[in-house]
């Protein structure tokens, strides 16, 4: 690898983590390099810095484009494609969450909806459907919550996430205020 030690450490770590995140090592390393790069890089820059084959870099860039995690740009007078990662980490976070929802959550919800429409033939299938219904309800609730979060600005989302356990304390206070004398809810 042709890069400073700190960059190399970051790139190697992302490569190792890639397999845990559902991408291969090469894709993880390419993304990490683009994320920390001061300027957009073309494929030959990436090949030189990572010591990878041109075909691996090309395939990795295509996969990252499919995830909407890199942007393609051009420089005047230069025919090469240049690639960069979005600057705003909140935009990256939202893109990853949206892509994961599209690739993992939506197909599962679709399968569950279909399975819940079937009439169970046995007690065992009724049990299975009941468990699937519970999973469906949780996933639908989480999906709705995520849809609401996507509408927030990055600044509001950052503030909300920094609240942490304070949100639970606010809910507890609200619940105590809602109870009127005599134990009746408002």
From TrEMBL:
InterPro entries: ArsR-like_HTH, HTH-GbsR_regulator, HTH_MarR-typ, MJ1563, WH-like_DNA-bd_sf, WH_DNA-bd_sf. The keyword Transcription regulation applies. Keywords: DNA-binding, Transcription, Transcription regulation. SUPFAM superfamilies: Winged helix' DNA-binding domain. The lineage of its organism: Bacteria, Pseudomonadati, Pseudomonadota, Gammaproteobacteria, Lysobacterales. Coiled coil: none annotated. CDD domains: HTH_ARSR. It comes from the Bacteria. Signal peptide: none annotated. This is HTH-type transcriptional regulator. Residues 22-80 form the HTH marR-type domain. Belongs to the GbsR family. The keyword Transcription applies. One of its GO terms (molecular function) is DNA-binding transcription factor activity.
